[in-house]
Model the fold of this input.
Amino acid sequence: MTDFGSYILNLFARALVGLFGIVLLPWSYILAFKQKKFNFYKYESARGWDILANKKFAPVFNKMLVLDGGRKFGKDETISQCMAWNKYNGFETGAAKKVDKILEFFDKGHLAKTFKNTKYD
Done:
């Protein structure tokens, strides 16, 4: 597919999700709440956004947060999973260390827990 074709497909998908979201998002919240799965639903939604951000911002993340030879961003994993792999395999940059410190403030041992609980290919 051409770059232009991919761009048009991306715009169409975003518009479609936005339009359906007006009706389907509140309905999904109601059903998840009734099924007592609201917390799981919100967690999985947040994880999905994290994976999307990993893919959307991969060029910037690869330039700023990973040394040559490290695990590249842009795969089907969270940003923290990629950062954890790079940290524990010696491929994190100075900027990645700063991001790690911010994560540590909010969740002590975040990358360590992520690394421990992830099965890498």
Q: What stands out?
A: Residues 38-121 form one domain. DSSP finds six helices and no strands in the chain.
